[in-house]
Design a protein that fits this description.
The chain has about 120 residues and is mainly alpha-helical. It is built from 5 helices and no strands. The longest helix is centred in the middle third of the chain and has 31 residues. The two termini are about 15 Å apart.
Length: about 120
């Protein structure tokens, strides 16, 4: 596998985990932010369990973004404030996180992490 393909494979999950870590850090959930940073290190572990762990973490992260979007939009709607832009931004972050999880299911990822076909 070429270095370029490997770099492309690891870039989106790393970005998604950084965004999730920043989200947890801003919410004063420092232990979860640290876990996100630790998960970034797993991107360099070429083992099947690492790929599966990352997929699960990113799937849970996708659910966290959906929960956050619902909670924040509900609060803004209750206060009579606009919430469309908030939903577009959080929807985009949710999509990036979900795509990162799906990217780890590709044949390139299976080859990298040593997962069976």
């Amino acid at each position: 596998m070429s270095r370029l393909r490997t770099g492309a494979l690891l870039l989106l999950p790393a970005l998604a985990l950084l965004l999730l870590g920043a989200h947890f850090f801003r919410a004063a959930l420092v232990p979860l932010a640290v876990v996100c940073l630790g998960l970034i290190a797993l991107l360099f572990v070429r083992a099947r369990w690492a790929g599966l762990t990352l997929q699960v973490a990113l799937a849970i992260g996708t659910l966290e973004w959906l929960r956050t979007a619902w909670e924040f939009a509900s609060m803004r709607a209750a206060m009579g404030q606009p919430y469309t832009r908030l939903l577009v931004i959080l929807g985009s972050v949710t999509l990036v996180t979900a795509l990162a999880a799906l990217l780890l299911r590709t044949s390139t990822a299976r080859e990298y992490f040593g997962s069976p076909r």
